[in-house]
Every structure is written in C-alpha cells, then in structure tokens.
Amino acid sequence: MDLDIRRMRYFVAVAEECSFVRAASRLYMTQPALSRQIRALEEDLDVVLFLRDRQGTVLTRAGHQLLEDARPMLAMAQAVQQRVRTANREVNQFTIGFMPGVIVTPIVREFARMAPQLDIDVVHTSVTDQVDFLLDGRVDVCYVRLPLPEGMFEVVPLFPEPRVVALSSEHPFAELKAVHVEDLRDMTLLQDPRDVPEWRGRVPLDPVAPPGDAGRFPATIEECLQTVALGSGCYVMPAGMAGFYRRDDVVYLTLEGVAPRMVALAYSKHRTMPELLQFAELSRRMLGPGPD
C-alpha cells in the first residue's frame, strides 16, 4: 500500500484546524468529501486517526504519530517539485541558508570565486525553521545548529558554540557575567526543556498539550525575549545569537553547566549536486576546527 500524498495533505489540514468544517473550507472542498478521504486514509492504514466529540476533533495516538511524520514527508514532496522545476531552468541556482550569529560572507565570496557558473543566493533562516528550509527545498545547503532529525540530512559539524541565558535587566543576576544552570532553578524556562537537557527549574504547564509536549511556549525568539524583559522567565540561546538580538531590557550571561550547541552545515542526503561537496569542504576549511 502506497500512501496517497493528497490524502496526507487533507489529514494535516484537519489535524491543524481541529475541525473537519474549517479544514474543508481551507481546502476548498465539501465537508462530506473531506470526511470520505480521511476515512479512506484510515482504512488504508487500518487505524483511527481522529476522535470527534462535543469538544471538537482530536487526534488519536496514531494520529499524533502520523502528523509528526506527515509534515516532513509533505515538505520533501514539495522540495522534489521545486528542485525539478529549478533543474529545468538554464540558470544554475545555488541557495545558501544562514542563521543569526553565523558569519558566512567570507565563505560565500570565496565560493562565488570558485564556482562562477552558479547564481548564488543567500537566505536568512532561524533556529526554529532551519529544518523547514531544508525539507521544502528553499535552500540547497543550510548552516544549522544541531540537533537535526536523524537520517534525513548529510551533516558536516563545524564548531561548538557556548550558550548564554537571557534574563531581564532588572534581575538580581543582571550584573554578573556568568551563571550556573543550577542557580536558575527558581525561574521558568520559556522554551522546550528538551532544548536544555540540564534544566531542573520550572517550565510552563499546558494541560491541553499533546503527548510529549511539556508546555506552551512563546512562538518566536522575539516573543520569548519580550517575556524575559517582563521578568516572567529566562531563555537559553547560542552565544552567537545574543549580539543579533540586543535589547536594553535584556542581558545575556554565559551559562555554565550546559553543553554547547554544535554549528554545522546540512543538506539533503538525496542530493547529488557536486557543488554541495565543494561548498561543504570550503565551510569545513574556513569554519571547522582544522586538522588534528
């Protein structure tokens, strides 16, 4: 049995809307037609994906698992289409993704000199969407901060990056240069604690979070820092990002007792473009630790 990509799109729409009616409107189809497609998908998989009650439409355990796998699968399908269309153009396009705190200008300049046949573009990403840019084909290569989902990408580790904690400038620790993670036990961490395995303090609780989610957190780094500035918690980030997100009402302290984040270069395992290896080797030479 082969999964129907169209039905997978329908499933994701219902899962995100928590409503067959809203999902049908979003997909420009009737609700009965959408229900038939979801029923057919459930029959193909021999599972129940949704439960419907007075509170609305909720995912089953099998539905949660399918949603976790469906999003990257759909992104990969979109990336295939994009790369095929790009390959049909006369211009040989090469797109590089970069994040705050990782300076890539010298590498891009050198690569442009080495590969004059390429039309090189540079795209800004963030820690929260770096995987999306790789999956859906918006970039050919991307500077990332590990970890990434296993088995999907070729990863070239470059250098470890220490981490800092963002605190309100009114916090008693604000005058310090460094703080140990154990000293922050009384604070609330404004991000998924899986990002900071050493964390032993508080996290915001969300009684309606799906299994595996510890709480509800601000959606963007900017929202996290706004909450930090108000004195409602702290946020841990790679040191290179601190200079990019400077604010007068937030201070950044070196965070001791936590592992650094590894900065790496990543690209799809399925790509055969020779310039990928050339760019990876250049990045390793200019950003990596050098020979042992």
UniProtKB/TrEMBL annotation:
This protein's name = LysR family transcriptional regulator
Tell me which InterPro entries the record gives.
LysR_HTH_N, LysR_subst-bd, WH-like_DNA-bd_sf, WH_DNA-bd_sf
Q: Name one Pfam family in it.
A: HTH_1
Q: Which family does the entry's similarity section mention?
A: Belongs to the LysR transcriptional regulatory family.
Q: Which superkingdom does the taxonomy of this entry point to?
A: Bacteria
Q: Which residues form the HTH lysR-type domain?
A: 3-60
One molecular function GO term is: DNA-binding transcription factor activity
Q: Species lineage, top-down?
A: Bacteria, Bacillati, Actinomycetota, Actinomycetes, Kitasatosporales
Q: Which GO terms describe its cellular component?
A: protein-DNA complex
Source organism: Streptomyces fuscichromogenes
The record's section on SUPFAM superfamilies has:
Periplasmic binding protein-like II (SSF53850), Winged helix' DNA-binding domain (SSF46785)
Q: Which UniProt keywords apply?
A: DNA-binding, Transcription, Transcription regulation
